[in-house]
């Protein structure tokens, strides 16, 4: 698949213009609507997601690139030349990468990136092949196959490549496996070791999952949850799918009770700070971050 990369100077100028527009919008929201700076930043993120849903329109962040791959809707057996293509934005570099490299060496970092890139592509309606991953990570297809086999056999993680679509469910992605270990009683540090991830990334998955589950239980809509938690609607959807696949299992009951208890305690503390009449209905309470 092709790798469209914009001219460096032009792309930098576009990012600077977009940052200036974001800052101005956030300032107007704070001054005009009286919301907090954090709420204004989240509002800007949601507006960007709604109005810049196409990868071609979305400004690139540092370490990101646009990549053209096969659309997720295409079957694995269809000839490549007849497949619909999808442009996705991939994070080739991420702030967690140095920590993963220090903890798990170069092989561990490559496997971490394989998981990140394939999941990002799926969230945007695309699917990467082993050949795509080899091109993106500057290694051989044989190395990618070995890494995918290692992730599956040692960690129970099914990498979402084009040939493995039929095997992919919400609980076998790297996020799903991490959350499954935690729901089963493992602490974050142990989860990070089990799935070859940084502790920071694992803690982020667990925090986002807990907030999404709690707010969904309170009747919040997915877009309200995205606004409150500060993540994309695609991420909210993936966390809700994991919840749907696990919440009925008795072995996870303790963790789900813990999520509900901590969330209720947070809301009670917020109400005590603001007074008994301050708690909004769930339809207007999406600004409050549990």
Summarize the structure.
The protein is built from eleven helices and three strands.
Q: What general outline do the C-alpha atoms trace?
A: globular
Overall mean pLDDT score?
81
String of helices and strands = HHEEHEHHHHHHHH
Number of strands: 3
What's the number of domains? 3
Largest sheet: 3 strands, antiparallel
Termini separation comes to 41 Å
Question: What are the segments in which pLDDT stays under 50 over at least 5 consecutive residues?
Answer: 277-288
Beta-strand level of the residues, as a percent range? 5-15%
Order of strands across the main sheet: 2-1-3
Your description of this structure?
59% of the residues lie in helices and 6% in strands. The chain folds into 3 domains: 28-59, no CATH class; 61-165, no CATH class; 169-290, no CATH class. The protein has 290 residues and is mainly α.
Task: Summarize the SSE layout with pairings.
Layout: H1 8-33, H2 37-51, E1 64-71, E2 85-91, H3 97-123, E3 126-127, H4 130-137, H5 141-155, H6 174-183, H7 188-195, H8 199-217, H9 222-229, H10 233-246, H11 253-274
Antiparallel strand pairs: 1-2, 1-3
Helix pairs in contact: 1-2, 2-9, 3-5, 4-5, 6-7, 6-8, 7-8, 8-9, 8-10, 8-11, 9-10
Characteristics of this structure?
6% strand, 290 residues, mainly alpha, three-stranded antiparallel sheet, disordered C terminus, globular, 59% helix
């Amino acid at each position: 698949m092709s790798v469209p990369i914009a001219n460096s100077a032009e792309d930098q100028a576009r990012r600077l213009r977009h940052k200036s527009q974001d800052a101005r919008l956030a300032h107007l929201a704070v001054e005009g609507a009286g919301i907090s700076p954090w709420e204004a930043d989240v509002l800007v993120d949601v507006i960007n997601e709604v109005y810049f849903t196409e990868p071609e329109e979305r400004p690139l962040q540092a370490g990101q690139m646009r990549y053209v791959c096969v659309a997720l809707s295409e079957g694995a057996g269809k000839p490549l030349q007849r497949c619909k293509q999808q442009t996705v934005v991939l994070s080739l570099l991420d702030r967690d990468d140095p920590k993963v490299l220090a903890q798990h060496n170069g092989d561990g970092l490559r496997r971490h990136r394989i998981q990140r890139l394939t999941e990002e592509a799926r969230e945007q309606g695309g699917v990467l092949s082993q050949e795509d991953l080899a091109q993106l990570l500057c290694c051989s297809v044989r190395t990618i196959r070995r890494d995918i086999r290692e992730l599956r056999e040692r960690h129970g993680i099914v990498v979402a490549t084009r040939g493995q679509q039929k095997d992919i469910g919400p609980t076998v992605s790297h996020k799903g496996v991490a959350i499954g270990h935690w729901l089963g009683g493992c602490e974050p540090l142990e989860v990070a070791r089990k799935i070859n991830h940084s502790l920071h990334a694992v803690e982020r998955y667990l925090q986002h999952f807990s907030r999404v589950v709690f707010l969904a239980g309170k009747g919040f809509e997915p877009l309200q949850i995205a606004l409150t938690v500060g993540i994309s609607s695609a991420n909210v959807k993936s966390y809700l799918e994991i919840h749907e696949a696990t919440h009925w299992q008795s072995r996870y009951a303790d963790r789900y009770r813990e999520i509900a208890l901590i969330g209720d305690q947070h809301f009670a503390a917020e109400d005590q700070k603001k007074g008994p009449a301050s708690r909004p209905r769930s339809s207007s309470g999406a600004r409050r971050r549990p």
